[in-house]
Amino acid sequence: MIVDFLLPSVLFLIGVAVIFLHIRLEKKVGRILGGTQLQLKHVFLLVAGMGTMVTLLIFVPEQSLLILFFFAYSVILFLFTYLLVPKWYLAVVPPVLFILVFMYFWNIYLFNFFAILFGVSVSVYMGSLFNWKTTLGFVALLTIVDVIQVLFTGFMVASAQKVVELGLPVGVMLPMFPFTGGSTFLGLGDIFFFGLLGIQSLQKHGRRFGVAAMGIMAFIFFLFQTLMLNSDFQNFPATVFIISGWLTSLAARYTHSVLSFHNGQSS
Hints:
Layout: H1 6-33, H2 40-57, H3 62-84, H4 88-91, H5 93-104, H6 108-127, H7 132-152, H8 155-165, E1 171-175, E2 183-187, H9 188-205, H10 207-229, H11 238-266
Antiparallel strand pairs: 1-2
């Protein structure tokens, strides 16, 4: 049987890093964003835009893709660095460094490093724009779009392959461990999805549950991934794995609360 412990473990560590940075930087992010939060109509437009972008990427020329992603990555790195060190002349260094290493020193290690950095950065920034209600809407809509784009149209897989072939860090690409001879890939959208659910779990039920939810989501992800690796499925929406883990964590917390209540009543 083929199993892979590395990707679920890395996903869990990314989630813990997102929670830690969100706790440390939440107030700063709130001041920068002015306390703005998305409404359901904004969530619908966001998911529609993401789905449309995935489709359009297939038809965009390679040079245009490089310019588009360089701009997006530079903005993300600048904003995240400015969040940590609020001096603009220091915040411009990481974007410049990214472009230079991409052009002259790029390898799989830097690919994964920047992919994780981008995933964490977007999660910390965007996580503050959501509340529990809009998160539920976003989760439902994005999962539906992901299923359609992966299983039916195939646009998600085609666009990811095109961008990865250009070397752009749009996800983590890791060897399978302990199984050798294969690799796994998880996109930035899935990493953001994972981080957002962890942040909302933290905000709703506290730090302990936030970390526990990350652990449960990573474990359920491992179970689903193992099933996929030992089946005929080559591609399957990772959002389904992640949301299944999140719902499991919520169900476990609810069950624990009910049992605690009944035990308290009995005593």
